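Protocol step 4 of 6: structure prediction from sequence.
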Amino acid sequence: MSKVKIQCLIGLFFFLSSYIFFSQISLNTQKYVDWAHWFNLVGAVFLLSFNSIFPRNNISKVASFFTSLGVIAHIGLCTIDFILWSFGDNDTARNELKQHISNTPLILYPFIIIGPSLLFIGLATHALNFIKTNTISSLMVIVGAPLVGISFFLLKNGNLMLVSCFMFTIGLALLLFRKGNHKGQIEIVEKIGPN
C-alpha cells in the first residue's frame, strides 16, 4: 500500500471519528481535551492527500482546488472552536465571542458558513470522476457530502449526521481501493511490451 493511500485512510479514520464525537454518542468525554475538533483537524489535513491519489484531469483540478480551500477553512474553524471550548463553563464569554464572529463577515463566511463545506464539495467532485465506473461508491460520496451539512445545520439530527458521514467516508475508501486503480500503469507496460 502506498504512503499516500495510508495518509488518505488516516484522514478518513480521524474525520469519521470526529463525527462520532460531534453526534454526541460519546458522553462528556471532552471536558479536558476537545477530542472532536482535534480529530476533525487531523482528519481534514490528511484528507488533502486525496488530491494526489485520484487521476489528473479538469474535474480533479477543480476538485483539488475546492478540497484545498476546504482544508484551510477546517483549520480556521477548528481553531475558532478550540477557543470557544477553552471558555469551559463561561457561557457569557463564549456567547460574546460567537456574537463578535457573527458580526465579522470575513471570519464568518470563509471559516464557518461556506469554507468548511468546500472540503465536502471538493471530495464529492473528485468522486464524479468515477460515476460511470464505480457508481455506488461515487454516489455514496456525492449524496453523503450534502447530507452531513443538512443533518447538522438544518435537521439538528446527530444520528443522521453520523450515518451521512459514515456513508461519505466509506464511499471514499471504496474509491481509494477501486478495481482498475492501476489501469494506467498496466497500459504503459502493455505499450512497452515484455523485455
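Step 5 (inspection) to follow. Residues 182-195 have pLDDT under 50 and may be disordered.
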